[in-house]
């Protein structure tokens, strides 16, 4: 923990949904839910208008529709989210060279590296206010909530206190006063299972957690988590803001034009990706211990699984075998739009005989299904030869309905077309360099 409030945490408010509302004027001020479009879908982000009805992230699409049936359910547009995130991260780097992105919509910033005249509370408060104004400007109207404190832990906690579009600065010396009344769930790593174990021990608030000895917490929660919670309950967090990291993983992934349903095809694709990962690792002199897969379902839900070996490997056959086993634990009903394999826990050595002489596997033939001629997910960008740009309002029974508007126009007209209308086209961003 620092002597100054010099670590800033920025969190974009309801990011995916806010981008959709920005780009779709007719949805501004209305409930918007990104994800959860399929029967087995899961909500990725809900706008604040939808949250008033009890809709939240990770809720099933079915429950979200029951709570807020009049919301706009959209499939999501990663290209728009990535481009907006780049603008925000650049604004943060313009402030300080030490920026640590956590995801597309949040990051830590080290204000001690920002070249400020001082780090008094008044100064960092002014900086936070200006940063929020700048984010609003570069993103075309999105809002962010900021927390500023003496540690990463406190800055992240502070950024949750005045949502949306707010800011909380924690003056040095007041950290414990802020934390003590809070529920233990605000501490990173305290999920439902840990919270339940603490509840059974009579621990509900950080003030109650602070009274428990370190040995008692280790006995209750184990070595790593027990020591960590004991320190955080006392606001002890000295983690630095890390702008650049060495490569922590090597991965390969692919997004597919048509949803995949054939498990043998998925296994073949993972095998091919795993062998490419192995080739890259050997080329760069790396090996790794943890094999992970990433699976994005048809409804925008992203799943991941991993397995850690006792020693590192760079063998594509071994990586593929583990990746296929991990896939077997996942429910891919409804189709898969993205598959990926990665290896982390990188090292610069390999224990050659760890797996013995594994037999070579036959090359799996991979033939992707033909993409559908037209795909019209809700919210997707389209262009009509005469009407211009718009987005998919909905589709079914051979008809697609489009709202013609952009971020720069007023709410536009709604028109319906045959799904195979040659004048209507899906708009896709140009491939990244």
TrEMBL record:
<feature type="compositionally biased region" description="Basic and acidic residues">
    <location>
        <begin position="417"/>
        <end position="433"/>
    </location>
</feature>
<keyword id="KW-0963">Cytoplasm</keyword>
<dbReference type="InterPro" id="IPR001126">
    <property type="entry name" value="UmuC"/>
</dbReference>
<dbReference type="InterPro" id="IPR050116">
    <property type="entry name" value="DNA_polymerase-Y"/>
</dbReference>
<keyword id="KW-0548">Nucleotidyltransferase</keyword>
<dbReference type="GO" id="GO:0003887">
    <property type="term" value="F:DNA-directed DNA polymerase activity"/>
</dbReference>
<comment type="similarity">
    <text>Belongs to the DNA polymerase type-Y family.</text>
</comment>
<keyword id="KW-0479">Metal-binding</keyword>
<dbReference type="InterPro" id="IPR053848">
    <property type="entry name" value="IMS_HHH_1"/>
</dbReference>
<dbReference type="InterPro" id="IPR043128">
    <property type="entry name" value="Rev_trsase/Diguanyl_cyclase"/>
</dbReference>
<keyword id="KW-0808">Transferase</keyword>
<dbReference type="GO" id="GO:0006629">
    <property type="term" value="P:lipid metabolic process"/>
</dbReference>
<keyword id="KW-0239">DNA-directed DNA polymerase</keyword>
<keyword id="KW-0460">Magnesium</keyword>
<dbReference type="Pfam" id="PF00817">
    <property type="entry name" value="IMS"/>
</dbReference>
<dbReference type="GO" id="GO:0004435">
    <property type="term" value="F:phosphatidylinositol-4,5-bisphosphate phospholipase C activity"/>
</dbReference>
<feature type="region of interest" description="Disordered">
    <location>
        <begin position="406"/>
        <end position="433"/>
    </location>
</feature>
<dbReference type="GO" id="GO:0000287">
    <property type="term" value="F:magnesium ion binding"/>
</dbReference>
<keyword id="KW-0234">DNA repair</keyword>
<dbReference type="GO" id="GO:0006261">
    <property type="term" value="P:DNA-templated DNA replication"/>
</dbReference>
<dbReference type="GO" id="GO:0005829">
    <property type="term" value="C:cytosol"/>
</dbReference>
<keyword id="KW-0238">DNA-binding</keyword>
<dbReference type="InterPro" id="IPR022880">
    <property type="entry name" value="DNApol_IV"/>
</dbReference>
<dbReference type="GO" id="GO:0009432">
    <property type="term" value="P:SOS response"/>
</dbReference>
<comment type="function">
    <text>Poorly processive, error-prone DNA polymerase involved in untargeted mutagenesis. Copies undamaged DNA at stalled replication forks, which arise in vivo from mismatched or misaligned primer ends. These misaligned primers can be extended by PolIV. Exhibits no 3'-5' exonuclease (proofreading) activity. May be involved in translesional synthesis, in conjunction with the beta clamp from PolIII.</text>
</comment>
<dbReference type="GO" id="GO:0003684">
    <property type="term" value="F:damaged DNA binding"/>
</dbReference>
<feature type="domain" description="UmuC">
    <location>
        <begin position="7"/>
        <end position="191"/>
    </location>
</feature>
<dbReference type="GO" id="GO:0035556">
    <property type="term" value="P:intracellular signal transduction"/>
</dbReference>
<dbReference type="InterPro" id="IPR017961">
    <property type="entry name" value="DNA_pol_Y-fam_little_finger"/>
</dbReference>
<feature type="binding site">
    <location>
        <position position="11"/>
    </location>
    <ligand>
        <name>Mg(2+)</name>
    </ligand>
</feature>
<protein>
    <recommendedName>
        <fullName>DNA polymerase IV</fullName>
        <ecNumber>2.7.7.7</ecNumber>
    </recommendedName>
</protein>
<feature type="binding site">
    <location>
        <position position="105"/>
    </location>
    <ligand>
        <name>Mg(2+)</name>
    </ligand>
</feature>
<keyword id="KW-0515">Mutator protein</keyword>
<comment type="subunit">
    <text>Monomer.</text>
</comment>
<feature type="site" description="Substrate discrimination">
    <location>
        <position position="16"/>
    </location>
</feature>
<feature type="domain" description="PI-PLC Y-box">
    <location>
        <begin position="374"/>
        <end position="410"/>
    </location>
</feature>
<dbReference type="GO" id="GO:0006281">
    <property type="term" value="P:DNA repair"/>
</dbReference>
<dbReference type="GO" id="GO:0042276">
    <property type="term" value="P:error-prone translesion synthesis"/>
</dbReference>
<dbReference type="Pfam" id="PF11799">
    <property type="entry name" value="IMS_C"/>
</dbReference>
<dbReference type="InterPro" id="IPR043502">
    <property type="entry name" value="DNA/RNA_pol_sf"/>
</dbReference>
<keyword id="KW-0235">DNA replication</keyword>
<dbReference type="InterPro" id="IPR001711">
    <property type="entry name" value="PLipase_C_Pinositol-sp_Y"/>
</dbReference>
